[in-house]
Amino acid sequence: MPSALDAYDPIPLDAAKAAGYVGGIGYVCADPAKRVSPAQLAAAAAAGVAYALVYEDGAADFFGAKAGVTKAVAARPILHELAWPAGRPVYAAVDWPAPETDWPQIWLAVAAFADTLGRPAAVYGPRPFLAWAETVHGCRYLWEAAGWKTGPAAEHTCLAQQPDPVDVGGVSADVDIILADDWGQHPYHPAAPPGIHPQPGPPKEDDMIATATVDTDLHIVQIGPEGGLRHWTFPPEGPTRFELVDGGGLDPAVTPVAGVFNGALHVTAARPGGDTPVVYRLDPAGTWSHQNLPS
Question: 10 and 145: one domain?
Answer without folding.
Answer: yes
